[in-house]
């Protein structure tokens, strides 16, 4: 029923199925099975975590690792202690039924219920297709908070048996967090390296290659749980470490087997977990206390919202891409609880925790509320808030190459600045990986790089074999040499060859080879930073010379803009009479010379040092003097403006057009140029009008 599945998440439907199955079993008089913690932790949880760790999007995970760790560690600690403290206060004020519950029992309950569940988050977030950043933040938090949950759970469980808790016990409990988390990661890395090394020698037995991946991953989980370390952290570390080396060694069919078997296995586990949750709800013993259950639900929501708001305010001070209020709402709203909390509550024994049934009832209520209410409403809220969705299309090879290029560029910038950021350390890790680790863990030529040419030869050989098998060159005699085969006319081949369509897996393999080969970075011989660069003694002199050249060029450009036509040299009266005497006809006055426009030049700021000598072009006869014959010939004449004083030269006399309001700075071209816009200056109006 598509209309139902589009509204209700799959996890909710599975819980409903479990409730119905449990009710049916109870209705016929049988005892329904309960989800036992051993079955959950040993068989149902590992496939889901391995699937998540093996196919973890490593780049967004590492880029946001700081944010994820703050949410996972600080956020979970805040939730546990805030919730435990408030629930202790509720128990003290809640009447006779709750007075016997002590502080340690409430803190233990808070540590169980505070952790975000990876199974529930995966089930809901995979369906709403939220953008990669929000998905990795919430999902990464749900994966990494396992270490905090395990430590707090075992810590408070042990403290509950103590008569008195000392400061030394608290310090040891704090240190145990680092042992549990880092120990789990170390166990996972060791098994991941062993799995990668083993896959180097499986080229002759391809059938059992997928088995090694599952075997070593499960061994990592069991080894971590054996020593009370974080099994989830061990599985994630094992999957992340082994994947690049294992995929380089195993065959394509083995890769496909691992991919689909993990997806199928995790899907089956997820289905069983949610169905068992429904069945266990019907089958289990419950003790309902309104005050305790409602307070738990309310304080869970309050603690989550406050924790996300405060931590995001702190995180945004250091993030380049800030978390917006919409992002904060989705992170707070996506804190779903699930079967891990139920199983941890089920593990409590009656001897030390007589209130176990009430704890389980409150845990199931919180799980149902988060999965049903928040899980069902998060999709319409994402649409309502217009939160960015996940891009379904894969990035093109062009985008991936440019991403790699920018990584190398940022690494170089960090080296020059002497700043060791995460690009620098990522580059160091990649170099160490290529130089040493790949040679040990990857077999044959692939340890260097998968070669494009080798892949091309492989494709050519495959195509030739298919051609021979199809009978395309069956008529060629066996005695013909290789050279003569190349010279045979192509008419022997089929006229229309249908190119086989590439499967998605083959296309992905080609994309991977292209991605790792199309962008080769030039290895630098030595690293430079600002502390090792030697100062050039002539650098200051060169800088001064360049500045002088630049100023000279700018001044020359300004002068060219102002004086693109040279000023006409003013002749003396003797020279003017000599010119008229030599050629009277050339200097005969023209009829319309009185209607010529006046062009006046006014620098933008006459007081500025860049101002130039003022030029004036006037029509003949407008200056109060008789026009000279040479002016009649030349039309518009440029004259140097002399200072206006009683003893001015007889060639130029200041007129009415010299007032500051009429002087406008125009380009001094040989022709007046296009008519300026009205707002730029007054239009050219002939003097006579």
TrEMBL record:
UniProt feature coiled coil, ranges: 504-531
InterPro entries found in the cross-reference section: Cation/H_exchanger_CPA1 (IPR018422), Cation/H_exchanger_TM (IPR006153), NaH_exchanger (IPR004709), NHE-1-like (IPR001970), NHE_CaM-bd (IPR032103)
Start-end of Polar residues biased regions: 654-664
Membrane topology qualifier: Multi-pass membrane protein
Catalytic reactions of this protein: Li(+)(out) + H(+)(in) = Li(+)(in) + H(+)(out); Na(+)(in) + H(+)(out) = Na(+)(out) + H(+)(in); Li(+)(in) + Na(+)(out) = Li(+)(out) + Na(+)(in)
GO molecular-function term, one example from the UniProt record: sodium:proton antiporter activity
Annotated protein name in UniProt: Sodium/hydrogen exchanger
Source organism of this protein record: Brachypodius melanocephalos (black-headed bulbul)
Gene (name only): Slc9a1
């Amino acid at each position: 029923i598509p209309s139902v599945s589009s509204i209700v998440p799959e996890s909710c439907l599975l819980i409903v199925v479990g409730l119905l199955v449990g009710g049916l079993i109870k209705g016929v008089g049988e005892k329904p099975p309960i989800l036992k913690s051993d079955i959950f932790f040993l068989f149902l949880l590992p496939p889901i975590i391995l699937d998540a760790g093996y196919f973890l999007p490593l780049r967004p995970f590492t880029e946001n690792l700081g944010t994820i760790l703050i949410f996972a560690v600080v956020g979970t600690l805040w939730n546990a202690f805030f919730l435990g403290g408030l629930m202790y206060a509720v128990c003290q004020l809640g009447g006779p039924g709750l007075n016997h519950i002590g502080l340690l029992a409430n803190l233990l309950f808070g540590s169980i219920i505070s952790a975000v569940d990876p199974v529930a988050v995966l089930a809901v977030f995979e369906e709403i297709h939220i953008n990669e950043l929000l998905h990795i933040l919430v999902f990464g938090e749900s994966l990494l908070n396992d270490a905090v949950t395990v430590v707090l759970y075992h810590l408070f469980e042990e403290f509950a048996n103590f008569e008195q808790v000392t400061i030394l016990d608290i310090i040891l409990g704090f240190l145990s967090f680092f042992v549990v988390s880092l120990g789990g990661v170390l166990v996972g890395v060791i098994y991941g390296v062993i799995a990668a090394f083993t896959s180097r020698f499986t080229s002759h037995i391809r059938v059992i290659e997928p088995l090694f991946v599952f075997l070593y991953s499960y061994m990592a989980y069991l080894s971590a749980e054996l020593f009370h370390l974080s099994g989830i952290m061990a599985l994630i570390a094992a999957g992340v470490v082994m994947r690049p080396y294992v995929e380089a060694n195993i065959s394509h069919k083995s890769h496909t087997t691992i991919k689909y078997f993990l997806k199928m296995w995790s899907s089956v586990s997820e289905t069983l977990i949610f169905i068992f949750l429904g069945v266990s709800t019907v089958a289990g013993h419950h003790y309902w206390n309104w005050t305790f259950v409602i307070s738990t639900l309310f304080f869970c929501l309050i603690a989550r919202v406050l924790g996300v708001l405060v931590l995001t305010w702190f995180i945004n001070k250091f993030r380049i891409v800030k978390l917006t209020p919409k992002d904060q709402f989705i992170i707070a709203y996506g804190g779903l609880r699930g079967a891990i909390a139920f199983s941890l509550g089920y593990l409590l024994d009656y001897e030390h925790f007589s209130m176990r049934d009430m704890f389980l009832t409150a845990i199931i209520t919180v799980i149902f509320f988060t999965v049903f209410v928040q899980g069902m409403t998060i999709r319409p809220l994402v649409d309502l808030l217009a939160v960015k969705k996940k891009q379904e299309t894969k990035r093109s090879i062009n985008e991936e190459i440019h991403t790699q290029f920018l990584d190398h560029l940022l690494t170089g910038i960090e080296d020059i600045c002497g700043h060791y950021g995460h690009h620098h350390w990522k580059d160091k890790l990649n170099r160490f990986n290529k130089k040493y680790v790949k040679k040990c863990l990857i077999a044959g030529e692939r340890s260097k790089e998968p070669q494009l040419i080798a892949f091309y030869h492989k494709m050519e050989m495959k195509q030739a074999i298919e051609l021979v098998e199809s009978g395309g060159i069956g008529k060629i005699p066996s005695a013909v040499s290789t050279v003569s085969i190349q010279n045979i006319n192509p008419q022997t081949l089929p006229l229309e060859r249908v190119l086989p369509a590439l499967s998605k897996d083959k296309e992905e393999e080609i994309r991977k080879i292209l991605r790792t080969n199309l962008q080769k970075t030039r290895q630098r011989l030595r690293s430079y930073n600002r502390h090792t660069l030697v100062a050039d003694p002539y650098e200051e002199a060169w800088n001064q010379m360049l500045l002088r050249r630049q100023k000279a060029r700018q001044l020359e450009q300004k002068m060219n803009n102002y004086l693109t036509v040279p000023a006409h040299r003013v002749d003396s009266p003797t020279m003017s009479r000599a010119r008229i005497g030599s050629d009277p006809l050339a200097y005969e006055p023209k009829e319309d010379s009185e209607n010529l426009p006046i062009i006046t030049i006014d620098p933008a700021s006459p007081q500025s040092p860049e101002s130039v000598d003022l030029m004036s072009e006037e029509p003949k006869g407008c200056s109060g003097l008789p026009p000279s014959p040479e002016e009649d010939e030349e039309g518009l004449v440029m004259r140097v403006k002399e200072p206006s004083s009683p003893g001015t030269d007889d060639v130029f006399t200041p007129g009415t057009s010299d007032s500051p309001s009429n002087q406008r700075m125009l380009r001094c071209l040989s022709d007046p140029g296009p008519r300026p816009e009205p707002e730029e200056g007054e239009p050219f109006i002939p003097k006579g009008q």
